[in-house]
Amino acid sequence: MPSVSTIAAIRFGSGLVPREAGPAPAPLDAAALLGDLTAPDTMAARFPVITRPEAEELARQVRPARRAAQAGTEAGDPEPELAYRALRQQLRVATNRGAQLTMARTVAAEIGFRERLVQFWGDHFATRARGPELGPMAQVFADEAIRPHLAGRFPDMLKAAALHPMMLVYLDQTSSVGPNSASGRKRGGLNENLAREMLELHTLGVGGSYAQADVRQLALLLTGLSWTYRAGWHFDPTKAEPGAETVLGEAYGGADPADVTEIHAALEDLALHPETGRHLARKLAVHFTSDDPDAGMVEAMAAAYAEGQGALMPVYAAMLEHPAAWDTFGAKARQPQDFLVAALRALGVTGEQVAALEHGPANNHLLGPLRLMGQPFASPPGPDGWPEAASDWINPQGLAARIEWAMKGPRFWVNPLPDPRRLLRAALDDAAGERLAWAVGRAETVAEGTGLILASPDFNRR
Amino acid sequence: MLNRRLFLQGSALIGCSAAAHPLLSTATFAAAPGENRLVVIILRGAMDGLDLVQPRGDAGFARYRPGLAALAVGAEDGALPLDDFWAAHPGLAKLMPLWAAGELGFVHATSTPYRDKRSHFDGQDLLEAGTGMDVPVGMAREGWLNRMLQGMPGVQSQTAFSVGAEEMLILSGAAPSASWAPASRLDLSAQARLLLDHVYHDDPLFRDAATEAVEISADMAPGDKMGGDANRQPLKLAEFAAARLREETRIASFSVGGWDTHRNQPGAMKAGLRRLSETVLALKDGLGPVWGQTTVLAMTEFGRTVRENGSMGTDHGTGGAMLVAGGAVRGGRVHGRWPGLAEADLYAGRDLMPTSDVRAWAGWAMRGLYGLDAGLIEGSVFPGLQMGSDPGLLL
C-alpha cells in the first residue's frame, strides 16, 4: 500500500505533480486535505470565468439575432445572418472556454481536493445546457452555486444550486405555473420535474420516505420561481399557487403575495432531514472510496452531518479520519476529466498553459479526448449525473481513447517528453506497481513509455 | 472470426509466451441470436419528411411550398418520380436502384408521441427512450433497443453495437452492448501492445476492455480511421457497423446529423440525403450476402412545418417520415396512411398530422426479425404502445 501522502494526492486530490529540486514538500494527510478547503479560494481568482451578466447578455442576443437573420435572408440582406453565425461561434467559444478554465484550475491547484469537490457537488446537482445559448452559464453555475458553499453548509448549497437559473431551465421549473395562480387560471400548468429531482436526487434520495403527494406539494410550493433571458432570475407571485403546501408533514407558504422565503424554509428542512444526511454521506463515500463503501464510515459521516446541522467540513473530516478511506485505495477509476488533468499535472503542464490555448487546440487536445473517453464536458447523461462504477468508464471504447491519448497526446503539451522513469516517479511515486516499472524500462520510445504509465491501471485507479 | 495474432506478433521481442497471457486465450464472443440484422439510424435535427418523399399528388403540397417544390418532378435537379403520387428528393438518386429492387421504402406521416414543444433535445430523448409522454421528457436513462435486448435470449457483449463517439441513449440500459467510435482506432506498435498486455495482466477490468478494444480495432482496415471530413463520417460509421454485423453483431445503431433546415433547405437536404444515401449503400456493400437479412430504419425526432418559411427552409413540426431499407423490408412503396394536406387535416394548423406511431413500425420489425412477443413489446420495450395490426413492413 502506498504512503498516506500518495493516497491523499491521488485519491482525494487532483493527482501528483513532479517534485522540484530543494526541500521536500510536507507530506499530505487528512488535515492537509481539509486545510485545502479552508484556505482562500485562489484558483477562482487566478482563472476567472464568465460572469452571470455576461452570460445572460450573450443568451439574450440569440433570439433577436435569429429573427433578424431570417428577416435579412428574406429581404436579400446577408449581413444579419453573418452576425447570427458570429454570435453562435462566440457562444461556442465561451462555452468551451469555461471547460478549459475549469481544467486549468484543477491542473494548477496545489492539492486539488477543492476542485474534486467542485466536480462532485456539480455532479450531485447535475445540469446540462438546454440549447447553445446556455452553454456559458454552466461555469456561472459552478462558481455561484457550488464553490462558495462546498466548505460551508449543505442547506445553503442546495438553495443556491437547486434554484439557480441553470437548474430552473434544465428541470423545466421555468414553465411550471400554479394551476390556481393568476397566470395559471389563464394558461399553463404544473411541472413536477424539479420537485421530483429535489427529493429523489438532491436531498432524501430515491429510497427516501416521500410519496407522490409530497412531490406534487413541493412542485406547487416551487411555483413562482422564474428566469428569463430578459429579466434574469426573479420570483413571479402571479405564477405562484396560492395557499400553503404540505411537504413531509410540514406546512409551508400561504403568505400573500407568495415569495421565495417559503421555498427556502422547505429546502432548509429537506436538507436537514436525516435521510438526506445518509444519502449525501453514502454518495461522497462512493465517489471517493469505493462503489460499495464501508458501512461504518458512511454511518460516521451521516452522524457528523446531523451533529453539524448540515455543515460539510465535519462530514469530510469523518470520511478522511476513517481507515476505510485509505485502505481501499485502487477501488475507484479516475473519471476521464480527472484522468486528463492528473496526466497533465504529472507531465508538469501548468494551469497557465491550459488556459492559454486557443479555441481550436483546446477543442482538439482537451474537449475532443474527453468526448472519446466518454465524458463530454458539462454534458452528463441525465440529472443523476455521471456513473460511478469503474466498469462504466473502463470499457473498450473508453479505455482505447485513454490509451490513444496516453501514447500520442502528451507530445502536444510537453516537448521533449520527460524521461519515462522520471515521469513514473512524478505520476505515481510509491503507487507504481512492479509490472508497470518493469514494462516502462522496456518501452522502445519515450512516447510509448509515457503512454504505458498514463494508460496503466496504476495511474487510472485511485 | 476474430483473431489474436496481433498480440502474438512479436511476442518474441520480450520473450513472452502465449501461456503467460491469459487474455490471449479467453473466448469473449459467442454465437448471437439468429441471423437477422437490424440497423437503426437516428437522424438528429428533425428531417423534413415532406421533402424526403414528396406528396406531389396532393394539391396542397405545391401551394405550401412554392419555393421548395418549384422544380417539376423529373426536371433537371428536380424530384425523382416514385409513382403517380410520390416523388423522392433528388438527393436520393443513388438509392433509386434499391427502390426498383424493392429494397428501399418509406413510412409517411409517422411520429413519436412527442407533441407541441418541438425541442430537439426532448424529441430525440423520447425517440430513443421509446416512451410515451407519461414519462418526464429527457429523464429517461434507458433506450428501447436495450429493452429489446433484455427480452432476447442469447445476447452477448457484442450482439448490439452503438457506433460513433456520440452518446446513444437508444442502446443504454441493463442489457450488455458494445460501443465504439471508429475515430478511436488503436494504433499500437507490437512492442507497446505486449508491454500493455503485461501491465494489464493482473487487472481483469483493464485486461478485458483492452483485449476487446485491440480486437475491434484490428478488425478495421488500415486507413479506416476517421478524418476531419464531416461528409465522410456517417460513411465510416456505416462501414464499421457493417463489418461488425458481418461477424457476431446483429443490431447496430448510430446517428447522422445535419437536418435542422431552417434556412437554405435545398442545399442542406441535397447534401444530407446524398450522405445518407451513401451511408445506406455502404451498409449494403459492407453487409454483402447478409444484406438480404437486414432491416435498416432511419428515423428522426419529428417532422417539419408543412409551409416553407421565408428563408427557403422549414421550422420544427410534428409528423414526419422514416426511411426503411434492406433485403428484409417490403420496399418499393410508401407505407402509412396519408392524412392529406388540407387545412383541416393539419396538426395544429401547421404540421403534418401523424397517422401512426413510429414505435409501432419498429415494434413490428423486431417482432418479425427476432420473434419478440407482442405483449413484451407493448409492455416493456415500448410501454403503453398499441401495435395494432401488422402493417407489412417486412417481407
Automatic annotation (TrEMBL), chain A:
Record InterPro entries: DUF1800 (IPR014917)
Stretches for region Disordered: 59-79
Protein name: DUF1800 family protein
Organism: Frigidibacter albus
Lineage, top ranks: Bacteria, Pseudomonadati, Pseudomonadota, Alphaproteobacteria, Rhodobacterales
TrEMBL record, chain B:
Coiled coil: none
Keywords recorded for this protein, A-Z: Signal
Protein's organism: Frigidibacter albus
A Pfam family reported for this protein in Swiss-Prot or TrEMBL: DUF1501
InterPro entries: DUF1501 (IPR010869), TAT_signal (IPR006311)
Signal peptide (from-to): 1-20
Domain of life: Bacteria
Protein name stated in the entry: DUF1501 domain-containing protein
